[in-house]
Amino acid sequence: MDLDQECEKTKRAKRTAMLRKTDLHRSDGQRSAARLRNLSETGLGGISDIPMESGEDLSVTLDGIGEVSGHLAWVDGKKFGMVFDEAIDPEKLTNNHRELAAKPTGYTVPTRFQPVNDYKRPGFNRTG
Predict the structure, then answer these.
(1) Confidence class for position 46, pLDDT limits 50, 70, 90
(2) Is the pTM of this model over 0.90?
(3) Which CATH code, of 3.40.710.10, 1.10.240.10, 2.40.10.220, 3.30.565.10, is assigned to 15-102?
């Protein structure tokens, strides 16, 4: 194998930084919550409170994409890197939290907590 082929093989895919929660499904049936820190077509980086080992098979549930299987490429304490068995399209990942935040609720802020429109100091007149 020449140097160009080896570089292409080890090149990292473009990662998108994020911070969101997801579910991990281990091969032994155990489920746990995890926080995603970055995502690419070929894998993800995250944090989990359960102990894991490099090479372990698991799957992760991603909103808009579904369950994606893969294995752990590395583990460093609570941090981990997962490589997917098949490439995904990160653009399909939905942002449910943004959609929920954009919906009008009908709530209005009481006037005493609204920003002040008059910035004059009381008792200070500029006449003359």
Answers:
(1) very high
(2) no
(3) 2.40.10.220
